[in-house]
Amino acid sequence: MCExxxxxxxxxxxxxxxxxxxxxxxxxxxxxxxxKVLSAMQPSGTLHLGxxxxxxxxxxxxxxxxxxxxxxxxxxxxxxxxHDPEVLRKSRTxxxxxxxxxxxxxxxxxxxxxxxVPQHTELQWILSTLTPMGLLERSVSYKDKVQxxxxxxxxxxxxxxxxxxxxxxxxxxxxxxxKDQKQHVEMARDIAQKFNNAYGDTFVIPEPEVRExxxxxxGTDGQKMSKSYGNTIPLFGDEKAIQKAIMGTVTDSxxxxxxxxPDSCVIYQIHKLLLSEGDAATLADEYKNGLPYGDAKKKLFxxxxxxxxxxxxxxxxxxxxxxxxxxxxxxVKAQKVAQAKMEAVKKAVGLV
Length: 352
Ligand code: ADP
Ligand code: TRP
What we know:
mainly alpha, three-stranded parallel sheet, two-stranded parallel sheet, 14 helices, 7 strands, about 50% helix, globular, binds adenosine-5'-diphosphate, binds tryptophan
């Protein structure tokens, strides 16, 4: 006799109670996990073009394609370097304003301050008890800070464990980051695997996602654009500061009308991020035909203001009260997810 088996595929987030009832007599229910994407940003400093293309844009796009998007401001990580309360208070609100202006939609993603969800530090402790010292000692970003003679502290050393907690708490499948953060996500994978091996499957193993074509946005001096190198082009704030940064971009010493090589020119490398493929090719031809660097910079400035004009307007209009409400609502949603995960973790390790 042939038994009839019906396969029903249900996306986890939509596997509601009513569906379960409807398919109660179905022989097998296969569940396809909904895709969860998570990323976070330090609130230290003015948002720049590198942050936008390396982190914000890829994350924002996930709002349209992922089933759940978590995006938060890591104010606890910021405490490893920012010890002025006024500066931290202002910078975390400013960072939230930046995201909202740049198109993060609280209807589509869960936005909150890391410190509003106490489970991050709770999980960090538990994970730290499984994290080998050697793993943390290999952190490129930590070694870099030591080498630069920055004041180190235990928090800075533990930074990757808190970041692992940030990620694992929400069962994130994908973590879009800039190239410099890839190692930290790999550490989160290692820590999750260690935990799962020790206590049974508890955490999803997250995948870092680095967009190769925008992996490193160059700064105005040709090095990686970074707040710590003082070579950034800001997204928001004073137009004059943007102009000054662009006009100060390094060039080689070619004469005004000499043919220029777009591929080795920082101005072009930045400009092409703002253009379609076709427009970038046309601009490359202009460089090869001798576009003077002064004109190239003016073109970049115009394109920049054009590209970010709408966002800059929105940025001006977002009030602190609105930010506080949106992030509090986000924190409530995040806490629900985080609390359920912590219950599973505590059960797994024997704390309940
Ligand atoms: P900064 O280097 O200015 O301190 P952060 O370390 O705060 O920037 O980076 C925030 C996010 O933006 C990270 O995901 C990081 O990888 C990304 N990012 C920062 N600078 C760049 C860059 N020049 N190119 C690509 N992504 C970047
Ligand atoms: N370390 C990241 C940065 O400096 C910020 C961060 C903290 C993060 N927790 C995270 C990024 C979790 C992605 C996922 O950019």
